[in-house]
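As agreed, record passed on underneath.
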Amino acid sequence: MRMAELSERSGVAIPTIRFYLREGLLAPGRATSPNQAEYHSEHVRSLKLIRTLVEVGGLSLTRVREVLEFIRAKDSELYPVLGGVQYALMEPPAGIDDEAGRAARDQVDRLVADRGWQVRPDNPARVALAHALASLNRLGQDDVAAKLDLYADAAETLARREVPDLLGRDSVEAMAEGVIAYDVLGDALVSALRRLAQESVVTVHLRRTP
């Protein structure tokens, strides 16, 4: 297919496609003349993936490049590829060195240990969770922080349903793309569903209140 069809099928504008080609995020097509190239379905798939990472995931191009490098490492072992993709999906938060930050990091370590979660010390989600807990502490939102185990239960329930489906895919590349689907689009789904449910519960509550 030509560039115009690639743009139409992927939903990505031609100038943006050319930018991704220049940046090395998208593999070049097969040259058919000095100014023309042929593209195929894998280019459409790659563009949709990049678009998801940028528009939904909010990742920088540097972070997108890291994710794509892990996905394209087809000869690598499964665990490092999937872990690398998941870790690359998160922009590393800045360190937190005040009292609230240190207390939050300790709380995260206790949570992981108490639940028996097999999580590496360098998982960026540890720092992200500590940031959230420290911010709740600074704001005095103790009722939210007190629900940490409830949130952890929900997260573990989701993970136990997601991971078997993810690992059942037929290739490392498909599994890596599944990590993106669950972690980027799955997070967006859960966030949106939660807000819809909150509005519904508040509305019902207010209607019952005299």
Summary: The chain has two domains: 1-56, 61-208. Residues 104 and 132 are 8 Å apart (CA to CA).
